[in-house]
Each structure stands twice: as C-alpha cells, then as structure tokens.
Amino acid sequence: MPATAKLIPIIKVPDPVLRKVATSVAEITDGTRQLLDDMAATMYDAPGIGLAAPQVNISQRIIVMDCGKDENPELFKMINPEIISQSDVLSVLEEGCLSIPDQTADVERPAEVEVRYLDENGKSQSLFATGLLAACVQHEIDHLNGVLFVDHISRLKRDMILRRVMKEMRQSASSN
Ligand code: NI
C-alpha cells in the first residue's frame, strides 16, 4: 500500500448509507485516487476481497477488489462500474460482506459478466469476469445500488443472518 494510505472505519448494517443509491463520480481528482488507495488498504487490512465506497460512508460509485491469490495479487480500482452483459448461466458461491461481519450464505448470480468502468486516470476499461471475480464484482456493484448479498437469499435466511449479526454487535459493544 502507498505510504500515505490510511485505514477507514467500515460501516456495518443497519446503517442507512448501505441502502442508498450511490452517485456517479463526475470528476476524478487526486482526492478520488487517495480514496481508492485508502479503500484498498482498508480492504487488505480487514481482510476482504472487495470494498465499495458506501461501506466507508462515502455514497459514490467507487469500488476496489482483489480476488487474486496472496502470491499473485490482482487489485482492481473501479469508478462508475456498470455491468454491460451477463451470462444466462448462473452459479452459486458462498458470499460474505465486511458490513455483515462473520456471516455467509450461498448466493446465485450470473456466472459471467462484462463490466465497463473508469480507471483512476479516467480511462474507460472493461473486464470480463468469471468465477469468484464475477461474483465479487456483482456483489460490489450491488453495494452502489443499496443492495446487500442477503437480499439475494430467502427472507427467512436473511432475517436469521441479520438478527444474528445485530446480536453479536450488541454483545461486543457491551463487552468493550
Ligand atoms: Ni459487501
């Protein structure tokens, strides 16, 4: 991580910022690039494989991801990412979220997606993603639309996960 990157506190459910539709970035500035570096540092520190700006209380269309292996990191920094095509074939992967600590569920999504986005220099880029990367980029773009992975599972399972996470957060707050 760049020497100047700083860690940002991660917002947890039920904070309303996680349910807002984030706004597009109109101009990419040094501040945007700093935010991307800070988000990447925060993601690696957590540790996690993806982080969206609303998760650090900034309601802008910005995400970072790294689904690479430890010995082979592959950091993506995306501004205004958009899914431009998706496969009819679906796949199921176990997902978690830094904003819903210690909970996971199987989520079904398109197995392959193509994403268009701006890089940190404002250049248009595209990514064809499969496997874990495809699930991750869809999960992060969902965050920009106020959608969480638990919205893709049954109401019964969603309520169970959210109840459990609230209970654990209450317990850790009262033991501090
Ligand atoms: Ni998440």
Describe the fold and architecture:
This protein is 28% helix and 30% strand. The protein has a single domain, classed as Peptide Deformylase. The model has no long low-confidence stretch (mean pLDDT 95). A hairpin with an 8-residue loop joins strand 2 (62-66) and strand 3. The protein is an alpha+beta fold and 176 residues long. It contains 3 helices and 7 strands; from the N terminus they run H-E-E-E-E-E-E-E-H-H. Bound molecules: nickel (II) ion.
Short description:
By secondary structure, the chain is α+β, with helices and mostly antiparallel strands. It has helices spanning 30-45, 131-144, 155-174; strands at 50-52, 62-66, 75-86, 90-97, 100-110, 112-118, 124-130.
CATH fold field value: Peptide Deformylase
| Terminus-to-terminus distance | 30 Å
Which geometry do the CA atoms define?
globular
> How many β-strand runs?
7
**Count of domain modules:** 1
- Poorly predicted ranges (pLDDT <50, ≥5 residues)? none
Instruction: Tell me which ligands are bound.
Output: nickel (II) ion
> What's the architecture, going by CATH?
Alpha-Beta Complex
Structural class computed from helices and strand pairing: alpha+beta
- The total count of helices amounts to 3
How many strands, which pairing sense, and closed or not: the largest β-sheet? Answer: 5 strands, antiparallel
Percent helix among the residues? 25-40%
